[in-house]
Amino acid sequence: MVGALLFVTEAGFFNGIIYSFKKLRKSTAKGKYVSNFDDLDDTKEIHEEYNKERRFNSKKPLLIIGGFYCFAGFLLSFLLYS
Fold this sequence. Notes:
Layout: H1 2-11, H2 13-25, H3 29-35, H4 59-81
């Protein structure tokens, strides 16, 4: 689970969520008016590029070990309970 969390964080999934909330906020007339006075969106560009902030070196071994334990757990469950 830790490896999957690191993978999702590194891939920028949460940056996409932040971008979509900004677009949703500007989709209403009230949201457009409010966005003129706050500094939540400093860029006025149509498309924003978010940089990948972190690289996790321990991501791959954690994913491999987690996948192995998941597979071993399924295999043992199948063998013991069938």
